[in-house]
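User: Last request for today: this protein with magnesium ion, please.
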Amino acid sequence: MVQFDNRQWQAKLKIVYYGPAVGGKTTCLQAIHRATDPERRTKLYSLNTASDRTLFFDLMSLKLGRIRGYELLIQLYTVPGQVQYQATRKAVLAGADGVVFVADSQVDRARDNVESLRDLVANLRSHGMDPETIPLVYHYNKQDLDPLIQIEDLETMLNPRKRPAFPTVATRGNGVLEGFAEICQMTVMSVADRLGVAQNPKAVERLAEQLRRSLKPLLGGGGTEDVSGDIVVNRPPRKPEAGKEEAPLSAEALVDEAVQANVAMTDMSSTLDLLNRSLQRQLRRLSSLHELLRDLSMEKDPKNILKMAMKTAIQQLEVIGASLSLISGTEGLRPLLLHGFKKDPLLANPKGAERAARLMQELKPLMVQLGGDEEDPDLEALLMEAGFGSAIWIPLVAYGRPLGLLGAYAGSDRSPLEKEDLELSSILAASASIAYLNVRSRRKLEASKV
Ligand SMILES: Nc1nc2c(ncn2[C@@H]2O[C@H](COP(=O)(O)OP(=O)(O)O)[C@@H](O)[C@H]2O)c(=O)[nH]1
Ligand SMILES: [Mg+2]
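Assistant: Here's the final one, the structure of the complex with magnesium ion:
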């Protein structure tokens, strides 16, 4: 059933590819996936049996642009064709807004087609949907094979209401996109009233025109790019015995597979969730950097500049300790700001102080974690002793001139600092160093004028 999400201004339409086993439903989705703009589609998810037959469904979504303010999201599903997966077919069909019936045109599949269509009609009725009115399009697939049932005969057998029908060769994509465009048109028009345009013939025509325009790029061909990495197939680890057709699953085994499939889906969704969270964090960091840069450009006191940079580092790296030291004359690094401890763990330790001096010569950032690759056993020992799990040290440099050192120390109870943290600290350190040196020079200049 078309779903409107008013908060996101999204209208979701569900189109199901139905038909006998091995007729080419999955292949149709692959062809559509290949031909569509990666910016507008999701991955193609497949949940398969061990021998690569569709077990539950294939699924991909596609954005078809905006219509009356709503973003149109088309969700494409296939069903498993094998007779015994009746319950799964029925479940996938629930809430469908449109159906593409993929018939296998080979002579010996005539009965399977008729049976599958009967099964479709029964399942639609059981969901309270009307087979006579639901948007429906036919594919007469495998037109490249021989011997075939004549198109007229297929029409008589399967399409008494003369719905749109397309001879197709799904493996080459022939006819598949045309059929897809047709079912999209029919499905969107069938929910036009719910999009708020049904009463007005002009608005309906405009809607149809808009759809034609968003579907047109799909029909222009293309589809030669390699998208294999964008297809996700989940199949259980069991292999069918060599040379044997895979036996249909018992009800019990099916439940077992369902649970596994669910786990796979949950896994995917949690991957997305993680990605989402990491993006959110990056966004937060960008905006805090933006704020810091703005504040730095307004600040006139050099010490405040260093304070602001250190505060941002503590917040954004989520560390419990931080230190900022400056090079003072011949004495080397002297601590200026400390957070979370009374003595800088690095400078307070003789070996640490030595390492710090080397860092100021190399002018390269350093990241160390407990149980890391042991490149810096002295620093690891130092972290352990001070009760930290990881740390980053970044030399403060402006116009090639070493100014000091920024250190950030994360607790041992959290995941260690990582590459992105190092990048963020480097940007922080560089901007603060330049701002610091500028303000200090300006002060000196002003003092000399007085
Ligand atoms: N020759 C030929 N083979 C096809 C065509 N469409 C699909 N196939 C093949 O038929 C087999 C079953 O296709 P699939 O899409 O998995 O069928 P489904 O069970 O309906 O999802 C696969 O080996 C496909 O490569 C077609 O138009 N021509
Ligand atoms: Mg399939």
